[in-house]
Amino acid sequence: MNYEIIRKSLKTHNNLLEDMILNENIDLDKLEKILNEAIKIKKEIPSNLNKNQIKEIDSLIEKVINNVNKLKIILVSKVEELQKQEKANISYLRNQKI
Length: 98
What we know:
Elements (H helix, E strand, L loop, with lengths): L2 H21 L4 H16 L7 H45 L3
Helix pairs in contact: 1-2, 1-3, 2-3
């Protein structure tokens, strides 16, 4: 891959991640693909790039990682919310006279 393709790809991925964060609508399949591609890019940064290009790619990969971490926080809070709802539902059902 050349520099421009890598750069555009990472920017597109970050835009998708930011949309997921903004909407709190997480597509796990897309998330997995984005992570896999970012890892692949990180491992295979072309050797013909200059320092500034490498620095920009590293920065974009770091942004992907930060956005993924934000999504993890959203997922954890959603799971915790669901667990609270489940406990409340169980308590409610236990208190019902059947």
